[in-house]
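Subject: sequence -> C-alpha coordinates, single chain

Hey, anyone have a minute? Need the predicted structure for the following. Not urgent.
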Amino acid sequence: MQASQRATGAHKARSHEYSVPTLCPAMDVHPSSYYDWLNEPLSKRGKQDQQLVVHIKQYWLESGGHAGYRNFHLDLIDADISCGRDRVLRLMRSNRLRAVRGYRRPGGYYGGSVHEAAPNLLNRQSELSAPNQGWVSDITCIHTQEGFLFLAVVMDLFARNIIGCSMSIRMKDELMLDALTHCRRQPTSAVMLHCDQGSQYKSRTRKKLLETLDITPSMRRRGNCHDNAVAESFFTNLKKEKIRRL
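Reply:
Had a minute. Here:
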Protein backbone atom coordinates (compact mmCIF):
# COMPACT_ATOMS: atom_id res chain seq x y z
CA MET A 1 0.00 0.00 0.00
CA GLN A 2 2.78 2.42 0.89
CA ALA A 3 4.65 1.58 -2.31
CA SER A 4 1.51 2.32 -4.32
CA GLN A 5 1.09 5.66 -2.54
CA ARG A 6 4.69 6.60 -3.24
CA ALA A 7 4.26 5.70 -6.90
CA THR A 8 1.09 7.79 -7.24
CA GLY A 9 2.83 10.66 -5.45
CA ALA A 10 5.73 10.48 -7.89
CA HIS A 11 3.19 10.41 -10.71
CA LYS A 12 1.60 13.63 -9.46
CA ALA A 13 5.00 15.34 -9.18
CA ARG A 14 5.66 14.65 -12.87
CA SER A 15 2.12 15.05 -14.17
CA HIS A 16 2.91 18.46 -15.67
CA GLU A 17 5.61 16.88 -17.88
CA TYR A 18 4.02 13.59 -18.97
CA SER A 19 0.51 12.34 -19.58
CA VAL A 20 -1.34 9.86 -17.36
CA PRO A 21 -1.32 7.01 -19.95
CA THR A 22 2.45 7.38 -20.26
CA LEU A 23 3.32 7.53 -16.56
CA CYS A 24 0.94 4.93 -15.13
CA PRO A 25 2.51 1.91 -16.88
CA ALA A 26 5.98 3.20 -15.99
CA MET A 27 4.99 3.47 -12.31
CA ASP A 28 3.10 0.15 -12.40
CA VAL A 29 -0.08 1.97 -11.31
CA HIS A 30 -3.50 1.63 -12.91
CA PRO A 31 -4.96 4.97 -14.09
CA SER A 32 -8.12 4.43 -12.03
CA SER A 33 -5.99 3.94 -8.88
CA TYR A 34 -4.15 7.16 -9.58
CA TYR A 35 -7.37 9.16 -9.99
CA ASP A 36 -8.84 7.59 -6.85
CA TRP A 37 -5.74 8.62 -4.89
CA LEU A 38 -5.78 12.09 -6.44
CA ASN A 39 -9.40 12.71 -5.46
CA GLU A 40 -9.08 11.17 -2.01
CA PRO A 41 -9.51 13.80 0.73
CA LEU A 42 -6.58 14.50 3.04
CA SER A 43 -6.65 12.44 6.21
CA LYS A 44 -7.06 13.96 9.66
CA ARG A 45 -3.41 13.32 10.47
CA GLY A 46 -2.34 14.83 7.15
CA LYS A 47 -4.25 18.00 7.96
CA GLN A 48 -2.60 18.11 11.40
CA ASP A 49 0.80 17.70 9.75
CA GLN A 50 0.10 20.67 7.48
CA GLN A 51 -0.80 22.84 10.48
CA LEU A 52 2.29 21.70 12.38
CA VAL A 53 4.54 22.51 9.42
CA VAL A 54 3.21 26.08 9.45
CA HIS A 55 4.19 26.48 13.12
CA ILE A 56 7.55 24.75 12.65
CA LYS A 57 8.46 26.96 9.69
CA GLN A 58 7.57 30.04 11.72
CA TYR A 59 9.78 28.93 14.64
CA TRP A 60 12.56 28.03 12.19
CA LEU A 61 12.48 31.49 10.58
CA GLU A 62 12.33 33.25 13.97
CA SER A 63 15.42 31.35 15.12
CA GLY A 64 17.34 32.43 12.04
CA GLY A 65 17.58 28.82 10.91
CA HIS A 66 19.96 27.75 13.70
CA ALA A 67 17.57 25.89 16.06
CA GLY A 68 16.76 22.19 15.71
CA TYR A 69 13.78 19.91 16.14
CA ARG A 70 14.27 19.55 19.92
CA ASN A 71 13.85 23.30 20.44
CA PHE A 72 10.86 23.42 18.09
CA HIS A 73 9.24 20.57 20.02
CA LEU A 74 9.58 22.61 23.21
CA ASP A 75 8.13 25.66 21.42
CA LEU A 76 5.09 23.61 20.39
CA ILE A 77 4.61 22.41 23.95
CA ASP A 78 4.77 26.01 25.21
CA ALA A 79 2.09 26.88 22.64
CA ASP A 80 -0.13 24.02 23.98
CA ILE A 81 0.22 22.08 20.72
CA SER A 82 0.38 18.32 21.23
CA CYS A 83 3.11 16.76 19.10
CA GLY A 84 5.86 14.20 19.51
CA ARG A 85 9.52 15.09 19.06
CA ASP A 86 10.06 12.41 16.39
CA ARG A 87 7.11 13.78 14.48
CA VAL A 88 8.71 17.24 14.41
CA LEU A 89 11.91 15.66 13.10
CA ARG A 90 10.01 13.80 10.37
CA LEU A 91 8.16 16.94 9.25
CA MET A 92 11.37 18.97 9.18
CA ARG A 93 13.10 16.35 7.04
CA SER A 94 10.19 16.08 4.62
CA ASN A 95 10.12 19.88 4.23
CA ARG A 96 13.95 20.19 4.05
CA LEU A 97 14.25 22.28 7.22
CA ARG A 98 17.52 21.81 9.05
CA ALA A 99 19.55 23.66 11.63
CA VAL A 100 22.66 25.56 10.58
CA ARG A 101 25.82 24.03 12.02
CA GLY A 102 29.17 25.55 12.86
CA TYR A 103 32.25 25.24 10.70
CA ARG A 104 32.39 21.47 11.05
CA ARG A 105 31.11 18.69 13.26
CA PRO A 106 33.47 17.84 16.16
CA GLY A 107 35.20 14.50 16.02
CA GLY A 108 33.95 11.66 18.19
CA TYR A 109 36.92 11.31 20.50
CA TYR A 110 36.13 9.61 23.78
CA GLY A 111 39.61 8.54 24.83
CA GLY A 112 42.67 10.68 25.24
CA SER A 113 45.75 10.72 27.41
CA VAL A 114 45.51 11.48 31.08
CA HIS A 115 46.28 14.94 32.45
CA GLU A 116 49.87 16.04 32.87
CA ALA A 117 50.19 19.66 33.95
CA ALA A 118 47.12 19.63 36.23
CA PRO A 119 44.53 17.06 37.35
CA ASN A 120 41.04 16.92 35.84
CA LEU A 121 39.20 18.34 38.83
CA LEU A 122 36.05 19.16 36.87
CA ASN A 123 35.55 15.59 35.59
CA ARG A 124 32.58 16.71 33.44
CA GLN A 125 30.64 18.00 36.48
CA SER A 126 29.26 21.10 34.76
CA GLU A 127 26.30 21.70 37.11
CA LEU A 128 27.34 23.95 40.01
CA SER A 129 25.24 25.39 42.84
CA ALA A 130 26.65 28.93 43.01
CA PRO A 131 28.69 31.44 40.97
CA ASN A 132 32.49 31.61 41.13
CA GLN A 133 32.91 27.94 42.02
CA GLY A 134 34.14 26.75 38.65
CA TRP A 135 35.14 28.46 35.41
CA VAL A 136 36.01 26.99 32.03
CA SER A 137 38.24 28.50 29.39
CA ASP A 138 39.03 27.73 25.77
CA ILE A 139 40.35 29.26 22.55
CA THR A 140 38.84 29.08 19.06
CA CYS A 141 39.57 30.42 15.61
CA ILE A 142 37.18 32.94 14.04
CA HIS A 143 37.09 33.38 10.27
CA THR A 144 36.61 37.05 9.31
CA GLN A 145 36.68 38.93 6.01
CA GLU A 146 40.17 40.21 6.85
CA GLY A 147 41.58 36.86 7.97
CA PHE A 148 41.57 34.65 11.04
CA LEU A 149 41.32 35.85 14.63
CA PHE A 150 41.73 33.87 17.84
CA LEU A 151 39.11 34.26 20.58
CA ALA A 152 39.72 33.24 24.19
CA VAL A 153 36.83 33.17 26.67
CA VAL A 154 36.30 32.50 30.37
CA MET A 155 32.85 31.17 31.33
CA ASP A 156 31.23 30.73 34.72
CA LEU A 157 29.67 27.27 34.83
CA PHE A 158 26.85 28.28 37.18
CA ALA A 159 24.90 30.51 34.77
CA ARG A 160 26.96 29.94 31.59
CA ASN A 161 27.94 33.62 31.54
CA ILE A 162 31.02 34.83 29.65
CA ILE A 163 32.93 36.77 32.28
CA GLY A 164 36.15 37.39 30.34
CA CYS A 165 37.30 37.39 26.72
CA SER A 166 40.18 38.45 24.51
CA MET A 167 40.93 38.46 20.77
CA SER A 168 44.21 38.54 18.88
CA ILE A 169 45.70 37.70 15.52
CA ARG A 170 48.14 35.33 17.24
CA MET A 171 47.49 32.50 19.68
CA LYS A 172 50.07 33.32 22.32
CA ASP A 173 50.15 33.33 26.12
CA GLU A 174 48.95 36.94 26.21
CA LEU A 175 45.63 35.92 24.66
CA MET A 176 44.65 33.81 27.66
CA LEU A 177 46.24 36.17 30.16
CA ASP A 178 44.19 39.10 28.83
CA ALA A 179 40.98 37.09 29.13
CA LEU A 180 41.76 36.40 32.80
CA THR A 181 43.04 39.85 33.77
CA HIS A 182 40.07 41.59 32.13
CA CYS A 183 37.60 39.26 33.84
CA ARG A 184 34.48 40.96 35.22
CA ARG A 185 34.49 38.80 38.35
CA GLN A 186 36.68 39.29 41.40
CA PRO A 187 35.94 36.24 43.58
CA THR A 188 36.75 36.33 47.28
CA SER A 189 37.50 32.60 47.54
CA ALA A 190 39.35 30.01 45.48
CA VAL A 191 37.98 29.23 42.02
CA MET A 192 38.64 26.23 39.79
CA LEU A 193 39.54 27.03 36.16
CA HIS A 194 39.17 24.14 33.70
CA CYS A 195 40.87 24.20 30.29
CA ASP A 196 42.70 22.01 27.79
CA GLN A 197 46.40 21.15 27.65
CA GLY A 198 47.40 23.77 25.11
CA SER A 199 50.74 25.49 25.46
CA GLN A 200 48.98 28.78 26.26
CA TYR A 201 47.63 27.18 29.45
CA LYS A 202 50.93 25.61 30.54
CA SER A 203 53.15 28.70 30.51
CA ARG A 204 54.94 29.84 33.64
CA THR A 205 53.41 33.29 33.37
CA ARG A 206 49.90 31.83 33.45
CA LYS A 207 50.76 29.63 36.46
CA LYS A 208 51.98 32.66 38.38
CA LEU A 209 48.84 34.59 37.45
CA LEU A 210 46.61 31.77 38.67
CA GLU A 211 48.48 31.68 41.98
CA THR A 212 48.08 35.44 42.34
CA LEU A 213 44.33 35.29 41.61
CA ASP A 214 43.84 32.23 43.89
CA ILE A 215 42.63 30.10 40.98
CA THR A 216 43.07 26.31 41.01
CA PRO A 217 43.91 24.88 37.55
CA SER A 218 42.12 21.88 36.10
CA MET A 219 42.91 20.32 32.72
CA ARG A 220 41.09 17.90 30.46
CA ARG A 221 42.58 14.79 28.94
CA ARG A 222 44.63 15.29 25.82
CA GLY A 223 42.62 14.87 22.61
CA ASN A 224 39.24 14.72 24.39
CA CYS A 225 36.96 17.66 23.64
CA HIS A 226 34.12 16.21 25.74
CA ASP A 227 35.96 17.05 28.97
CA ASN A 228 35.37 20.73 28.13
CA ALA A 229 32.02 20.32 26.37
CA VAL A 230 30.48 23.50 27.81
CA ALA A 231 33.05 25.79 26.19
CA GLU A 232 32.98 23.77 22.95
CA SER A 233 29.18 24.08 22.84
CA PHE A 234 29.39 27.85 23.33
CA PHE A 235 31.80 28.24 20.41
CA THR A 236 29.58 26.06 18.19
CA ASN A 237 26.49 28.17 18.93
CA LEU A 238 28.46 31.39 18.51
CA LYS A 239 29.64 30.41 15.04
CA LYS A 240 26.36 29.05 13.72
CA GLU A 241 24.10 31.76 15.23
CA LYS A 242 26.24 34.84 14.71
CA ILE A 243 29.38 34.43 12.62
CA ARG A 244 28.09 32.27 9.77
CA ARG A 245 25.10 34.61 9.32
CA LEU A 246 27.32 37.63 8.58
